[in-house]
Design brief:
By secondary structure, the protein is of the alpha/beta class. It has one domain: P-loop containing nucleotide triphosphate hydrolases (Rossmann fold, 3-Layer(aba) Sandwich), CATH 3.40.50.300. A nine-stranded mixed sheet has the order 5-4-6-7-3-8-9-10-11, sandwiched between helices. The chain has a two-stranded antiparallel ribbon with strand order 1-2. A hairpin with a 5-residue loop joins strand 8 and strand 9. Helix 8 packs parallel to helix 9. The radius of gyration is 17 Å and the shape is globular. The C terminus is likely disordered.
C-alpha cells in the first residue's frame, strides 16, 4: 500500500483514507492562528513514527523544537533525528531550496513540508510591485516543482498558505494569487477556519481524490496539538 501519513485528526484521516498520500500535494490554508503549522508539525511527527524522514522548509521562521516537544507524544530525539529543517530568509533562497529538492530528498524520506509557501513571495512582491507578474510566474513554477517531486519521489508534500479576511465587500471570496496557484497544483485542499469558542477551529476539506462535496469537522487546538472533538460540523 502507498505510504499514508496521519494528520493527527481521526476525522481528517478518515476522509483522506488514512492521511496524506505519497505522490501527492496537500494544501492547508487559512487565516493566522488557525493551526496550520501545528498540523504540519503533527504530520512530521507521524512521519517519523513510521520511520521516514521529513524535510521541513520553514519560510516563516516560526519552527521551534519547543513546539515540536509540546506536540510529540514520543521520544523527541526519535523525531528530531528524522527531521531536516531549512530556513530560507528570502524568496530567492526559497527558490534555491525548491530547485534542489531532488538533492535533499533522498532515500528514506516520506514527507516535504513548506510552511508558509507564500510568505517570502508576499514580502518580495511588496518590495518590488513592478515585478509581480514575474514573481507570480516563479511561484507557479515552484508549485509545479513540488508536485513533480511528490510524483517522482513517491513522497507526500504538504504546503501551507495564509489568507487574510477582508471587510471590503468587493474582495469577498477573492484569494491571494499565491493560494490560487497552490490550489491549482494541490491534490488535496484543507481550509482551517476560526470557530466560536476558545481553542476551537473548523477544518473544511475542500478537495480530495474521491470526495463529492466538502466535509467539515470541528477540531480543538492547544499547545499539545490539534485534536478531534465530538462535534461533526457537517458537509
Amino acid at each position: 500500500m502507498p505510504l499514508r501519513i496521519s494528520t493527527g485528526s481521526v476525522s481528517i484521516d478518515k476522509t483522506l483514507e488514512g492521511g496524506l498520500n505519497a505522490g501527492s500535494v496537500t494544501l492547508v490554508y487559512g487565516e493566522a492562528e488557525t493551526g496550520k503549522t501545528t498540523l504540519a508539525v503533527q504530520c512530521a511527527i507521524n512521519c517519523a513514527q513510521k520511520g521516514y524522514k521529513t524535510l521541513f522548509v520553514d519560510c516563516d521562521g516560526t519552527f521551534s523544537v519547543r513546539r515540536l516537544s509540546d506536540v510529540a507524544s514520543v521520544r523527541l530525539k526519535d523525531v528530531v533525528d528524522l527531521m531536516i529543517v531549512m530556513r530560507p530568509e528570502s524568496f530567492k533562497e526559497q527558490t534555491a531550496v525548491i530547485d534542489r529538492l531532488s538533492e535533499y530528498v533522498t532515500q528514506g524520506f516520506g514527507l516535504v513540508i513548506v510552511d508558509t509557501f507564500t510568505s517570502l513571495y508576499r514580502l518580495r512582491v511588496a518590495e518590488s510591485p513592478n515585478k509581480t507578474f514575474e514573481l507570480n510566474r516563479e511561484l507557479n513554477r515552484q508549485a509545479a516543482c513540488l508536485a513533480q517531486t511528490a510524483r517522482i519521489r513517491k513522497i507526500a508534500v504538504l504546503a501551507t498558505s495564509q489568507v487574510r479576511s477582508t471587510m471590503n465587500d468587493s474582495d469577498v471570496g477573492v484569494e491571494p494569487v499565491g493560494t490560487r496557484v497552490l490550489k491549482f497544483w494541490a491534490d488535496t485542499i484543507v481550509l482551517l477556519k476560526p470557530s466560536e469558542g476558545t481553542g476551537l477551529i473548523r477544518a473544511v476539506l475542500e478537495k480530495t481524490s474521491k470526495m463529492v462535496q466538502p466535509s467539515s469537522f470541528a477540531l480543538r487546538i492547544d499547545k499539545t496539538g490539534i485534536h478531534d472533538t465530538l462535534g461533526f460540523v457537517g458537509s
